[in-house]
Amino acid sequence: MALSSAARSGFLDLAPTVESFADAVVHGLARTPKSLPATFFYDAEGSRLFDRITDLPEYYPTRTEVGILRDHGAEMAALLGPGVQLVELGSGSSVKVRLLLDRLEAPAGYVGVDISRDHLRDACDRLAADYPDLEVLALCADYVTQDVPIPPPTTGLPRRRVAFFPGSTIGNLLPEEAERFLAHWRPELAGGGMLVGVDLKKDKAVLDAAYDDAAGVTAAFNLNLLARINRELGGGFDLSAFRHHAFYDPAKGRVEMHLVSTRDQIVPAAGRRFAFQAGESIHTEISCKYSLPEFQALAARAGYRPARVWTDPAALFSVHWLEA
After folding, report:
1. Whole-model pTM above 0.90?
2. Closest by Cα among 192, 210, 167, 197 to 292
């Protein structure tokens, strides 16, 4: 992997193949109840739609987390220390990380890890142009299910490696999966740690609105998963025959997103045919919410030391510093 001459940036492609997408679709639609992995939301169109979601008035997590990073970024950067290699998991548009990079002392490098190849490359190219002294690597991979070895900076080993995992993406995993995920990444971060955004439990009405906005952008984001199957796997989904359904389940402490069939139908996809009954759903995503003690206990079970936590004044969201 060579760095470009125009900017200190590079690209490493470890993305899942089309075959793995097809396998996931066949496996998920053949089971009962039907489901599809949320990982595959983020093609170019899905990433564009998610960027729109983050600006919606109902969707509080992004602006709230940005506020926490803006207010406490200097304190976070001091805890991370000088000479750090910052690895952003689910980097998306790489907007939030700038609030850390602006405050870090002589960072050794930045690695953006995301599943959406084109979106990732564009974001890292912009970052490299804006931070010409920073070594930037775009690493396309499914960082949740894959082993993702992180190359050291070309200048040598960093003083420490820290993962930045914003956006409450960890809530897309069941608690036991989140614990395994954190434990899996801990060896890569030994001597450093993880800075992770975690959404907090709150009123059901606030959460329902955040995942089912009045403008229908989240519905379009959810339905784009079926459109992607049509585009890439020869699917025959009629998007008008499915509706977006999202709700918070207080007993389980999580939001669930579904695509519900509005009629009996048979749909071809990935070389197979799948039958749907009216009212039958495809489960596409969860978003688990935590209290502060719940998440800190989970992180401790995964082998981290919960060292600091920051929240907004309304206690909507939290950012945790977990020492590895």
Report:
1. yes
2. 197
Evaluate whether 249 touches 225 at the Cβ level (below 8 Å): no
The tens digit of pLDDT for each residue in 2-48 reads: 444 344 679 998 887 767 899 999 999 999 999 999 989 989 899 89
Q: Which of 131, 56, 125 is nearest to 91 (CA)?
A: 125
Residue ranges in the chain assigned as alpha helix (H): 18-30, 44-53, 60-80, 98-101, 117-130, 175-185, 204-210, 217-233, 292-301
Q: Which residues of 51-61 are buried (b: 16+ CB within 10 A; e: fewer)?
A: eebbebebbbb
CA–CA distances in Å: residue 184 to residues 14, 178, 179, 297:
18, 10, 9, 17
The full set of domains in the chain, from first to last, is 9-14+57-202+289-323 (3.40.50.150)
Distance from C-alpha of 322 to C-alpha of 324, rounded to nearest angstrom:
6
Cα(46)–Cα(162) distance, integer angstroms? 27
Ramachandran angles phi, psi of 97, nearest 5°: -65, -25
Cβ(320)–Cβ(298) below 8 Å: no
Residue 70 exposure: Cα atoms within 13 Å on the Cβ side: 8
- State the pairing for strand pair 34-35/84-89: unpaired
What is d(CA 252, CA 256) in angstroms, rounded to the nearest whole number?
10
What are 102's two structure tokens?
Answer: 């602006």
Count of Cβ atoms closer than 10 Å to residue 39 Cβ: 18
Contact 196, 179 (CB under 8 A): no
CB 7 within 8 A of CB 136: yes
Rounded to whole angstroms, the Cα distance separating 44 from 27 reads 23
**251-267 pLDDT per residue, tens:** 999 999 999 999 999 99
Strand partners, 138: 11, 112
